[in-house]
Write a structure and sequence with these properties.
The chain is an alpha/beta fold. The chain has 9 helices and 15 strands. The strands form 4 sheets. A 7-stranded parallel β-sheet has the order 3-15-14-9-8-7-6. A 4-stranded antiparallel β-sheet has the order 4-5-13-10, with no helix packed on it. Helix 4 packs parallel to helix 5.
């Protein structure tokens, strides 16, 4: 009889049946090719970032391919909170019992108002805070200023009882101090990392390939950097980590677990293979069986300082 392994993980107060989920911005419940049974096999679902009010996002073109990744400058378009609650949340509830809602706003006040509103909504398991959003009052990105970062998370925590996941920007000189800032502010979980700032120029037209000029780089090119960041912050924080960035197969996910991630999000790879998350779940289970581990928890953070 084949030995079964346990893929269940605890992210602070959040319990997952397995540690694999989509990254925000790469999953749309209305467009996915996965059926409800397949969606229910995921550890969680994470829809696109939402804002309180409807907004268009950046001008096109919004996406361009690079040699080993994808540049995007989508700009967090949103149809607003009322549309999300009415049109998307019921479908998400049917698909999975763990729903992580990503928040993308432009000021501390807006983030707090949205968090307070969502706190009253049943079926939302946790809030992931997109910390690459700029504060329009002074143009500073929350994710690159540790004082603003602390202030934002601290104030959001006062407006919700739901677990807070801080999605850190990698575009900083010391990721450890950013991780410590959100932990000290009360975040229960950290997602590492958001996209890396990049640019691509069409040499014939002599213009940027993105309407916003610069965008966020995702895909295989960034994975080794993200693995290093996971490993670094795992040495200094006490809260769980969700790894994201360039995961294209089970081996990539396992690398992040070994570095210290308790869960992994899959992003750009979903566009080329809509079934990649299901394949990763199966292959991670096979790896654990082959290595004679009983649980995914047995390999988290095995590569230590």
């Amino acid at each position: 009889m084949s030995r079964e392994v346990d893929l269940e993980v605890d992210l602070g107060p959040l319990h997952l049946k397995n540690p694999i989920m989509p990254a925000s911005g790469t999953f749309d419940i209305k467009c996915t090719l996965l059926n409800e049974k397949q969606l229910n096999k995921l550890g969680a679902v994470v829809p696109k970032s939402i804002a309180f009010k409807e907004r268009e996002g950046n001008p096109g073109p919004r996406i361009c391919e690079t040699d080993c990744g994808l540049l995007n400058a989508v700009g967090i378009p949103s149809k607003g909170i009322e549309y999300f609650i009415k049109e998307e949340l019921p479908l998400l509830k049917k698909a999975n019992n763990t729903i992580i809602v990503s928040l993308g706003e432009n000021s501390i006040e807006d983030f707090c108002n949205l968090a307070e509103y969502l706190n009253k909504i049943e079926g939302i398991s946790a809030l992931e805070i997109n910390l690459s959003c700029p504060n329009l009052n002074n143009g500073i990105f929350f994710g690159v200023n540790k004082d603003k970062l602390y202030e934002l998370i601290f104030n959001i925590k006062k407006n919700t009882s739901k677990p807070i996941i801080a999605k850190l920007s990698p575009n900083v000189s010391d990721i450890k101090e950013m991780a410590l800032a959100v932990q000290n502010a009360g975040a229960e979980i950290i997602t590492i990392a958001n996209t890396f700032m990049g640019m691509s120029i069409d040499i014939n037209k002599q213009v940027s390939r993105l309407g916003n000029k610069i965008g966020g780089l995702s895909g295989p090119a960034i994975r080794p950097i993200v693995v290093r960041m996971i490993w670094e912050i795992a040495q200094v924080i006490d809260i769980p980590i969700i790894g994201v960035g360039g995961v294209c197969c089970a081996e990539d996910a396992i690398e992040m677990f070994l570095a210290g991630a308790s869960a992994v999000q899959v992003g750009s790879a979903n566009f080329s293979n809509p079934y990649i998350m299901l394949e990763i779940i199966s292959e991670v289970k096979r790896y654990l069986k082959e290595k004679k581990y009983n649980s995914i928890k047995d390999i988290i953070g095995l590569v230590k300082d």
